[in-house]
Input
Amino acid sequence: MEKFETLSGIAAPMPLVNIDTDMIIPKVFLKSIKRTGFGANLFDEMRFNRDGTEIADFVLNKPQYREAQILVAGDNFGCGSSREHAPWAIADFGIKCVISTSFADIFFNNCFKNGILPIVLPQEQVDLLMKDAEKGSNARMTVDLEAQEITSSDGDVIPFEVDAFKKQCLINGLDDIGLTMEKVDAIDAFEAKADAARPWV
Amino acid sequence: MSPKTLYDKIWDAHVAHEADDGTCLLYIDRHLVHEVTSPQAFEGLRMAGRGVRAPEKTIAVPDHNVPTTQGRNDPSQMTEESRIQVEALDKNAKEFGVHYYPVSDVRQGIVHIVGPEQGWTLPGMTVVCGDSHTATHGAFGALAHGIGTSEVEHVLATQTLIQKKSKNMKVEITGKLKPGVTAKDITLAVIGETGTAGGTGYVIEYCGEAIRDLSMEGRMTVCNMAIEGGARAGLIAPDDTTYNYVKGRPHAPKAGAFEQALEYWKTLFTDEGAHFDKVVTLKGEDIQPVVTWGTSPEDVLPITGVVPHPEDFEGGKVDAARRSIDYMGLTPGQKLTDIEIDTVFIGSCTNGRIEDFRAVAEVVKGKKIKDGMRAMIVPGSGLVRAQAEEEGLADIFREAGFEWRLAGCSMCLAMNPDQLSEGERCAATSNRNFEGRQGYKGRTHLVSPAMAAAAALTGKLTDIREMM
Output
C-alpha cells in the first residue's frame, strides 16, 4: 500500500450530507474485476450527463478543483454499501484525504486499506475547513498524519484523532494480511480451543 | 463477573489475539462470498501465493449480477462484464475449494437468504461477507457484518478480521404491533427515529415483545436494515423461534451435536444489568405502516403523512431534503397516498422470503394489478421459489398479473437487467432508496411487502389498513 505521511493540496468542498456509496461509484461501474480505473467514474451521476459530457457546476468539474487531493464533506459520508470500489475510485481520482463530521463504518475502514486518510472533526471545524475549501485553488490545505494536524490556507492548525494502529499502517504503507500472518500461532491456538468448545461450528 | 450484553459475549468468544491498544483479531466462523466484491480478493491471494485458510467455512454464491428471467443460463442474457464476474466466481470457488452454489443450482439465491436457509448461519457465530446487508444474519444471535474487499482477502487468508470493539446500543420495541404493521415497518421506523448515522459506532441489539413475537423471517428483515441506521451489526437473542428454524437444516448440527449446541445457545442473552451506551425505545402500538419519501432510508413517514417541506429540517438536512424532493419529483405538502406508482418490486435480502410472499398473496389473491403497472416478484432463493410454487402462491401472483421471477438481487440494486428507467417510480420492498439505486434517475419508495402489493393493485402508495 502507498504510504501516507504529509499531504499538501487543494481541498474540494462537498457540503451535502449522507453522500452514499451509490453516489460515489454507481453500481454500473462495479463490474470490473480489477482494483484500478474507477476514478474516471467517481461521482459519475453527479459529474456527467448521460451523454458523457460534464455537468459544469459539479465541484470536481470546476477548473480550480480538478486536481483536488482532499475532500471536505457533509455528515455521514460513505453510507450505504460495503463496496471498496468507493475508496478505490476516490484514490484513483487522486483524493487521499476526506474530512467530515462522521463516516459510515465500513467505508471508514475501507479507506485505511487503500492509503486514504478519513478524518472526523467537530462541526465547527468542518465548517471552517469547508469555507477554506470554497476559496478554490488558492487554498492549499496541509494534512500531517505524523503530527495529527491539519493546517488551513490561513494557517489555522486543527488537531485530529486517529487510531494508533491504523496510523502506523498508513504511515508505513503496511499490508494488514502480512501483519496478521505474524500472529498465526495465536490463530492456530484459538482455532483448536474453539473447535473443542464448539465442535458444531 | 460483570454482566455482559449479547454482543459482549459473542465478541469475547471470538477474540483470537488482543494487542495492547485494544486492536483485536476476531475469529470468523462463516465467510459468505458473492461475485461483485470478491474477484479482487481472490486475485490478491493468487498474487501473494496465499490460499484460503478455512475453505470449509467459506460459502460462495453469485447473486448481484444474475438475470432473474427464464433461460438465464444462456450467456447472452448477461452483459459481457456480468458474465466475467460470475465466471470469475465459478473459477475461484473451484480453485480454492470453497462451498459453492452456482446459478444452475436450485439452492442458488441471495447470499443472505441462502446462508440461513442452508443452516450455515447459527446462533453465537461470527459471520462476515463483502456486503453491507450481512447484518441480516444477526437475527440468529450471530455477530454479522459487512466488510470491504481488502477485508474479504484478509478473512480468506487468515480467517480473522482486525477489529476494535463497537459500543452497545439497545433498540427495544415494546408491546404488540397493530394490524397491517410488519417487521419492515419496525426497521424503517427505527431508522426514521435514529437517522442513518444514529447507529454509527454501535452494534444494536433489538429486543422487546414486538421483536420476540416476530418469526425468523421478520427478524431477518429487522436486522437486515441495521446497516441503514449506520450500525455495524444488528442482533436478536436466540430463542425457541430460532432453534426451531435452525433444526434440521442441511448444515445445522444434528442429534447429539444439536443438543450440545443448544445448551450453548441458551447462554446467549444479555445479562440483567448489562450496560448499553445508547438506548432507543419505541412502542409497538405507535408504529404505523410507513413509506420513504426521499433518497435516504431515514426519510420515513407514516403512510398517512404528507411530503415534508425542506424548511422542516435543520442544518445540512435542509439542502439534502430539497435535493431529495426534487429528485423524487414530489411537492411539499402532497399526500403520500396521492403518489402514483409505475412499478412494484417485491424481493431482495430484506423481503424475499416465503413469509413476505404469503403476505403479498393475501393482499392480491383473486385481484388484478392496475392496468399498465409493471410488477415483479423475485424470490430470494431457488428454494423459496419452489416453496411458493408448492403453496400455490406463484399461481396467485401470475393470475394477478405479476411477473414471477427466478432468484437473485434483481432490481434492489439494478446490477442486472432489472432496472428502473429515468423518472420511473417504484414501490420497493428492498432496503435503499438512494439516487440511482434501482436505475439511473429511478425513484424508489421503500415499503413492506403488503404495502407494495396494495400499491400494485391501486397504482398509488396505499394504506394497507384500508384494504384489510
About this structure: The mean pLDDT of chain A is 96. Helices of chain A lie at 21-24, 44-47, 85-93, 105-112, 123-133, 164-172, 176-181, 184-197. Residues 184-197 of chain A form the longest helix (14 residues).
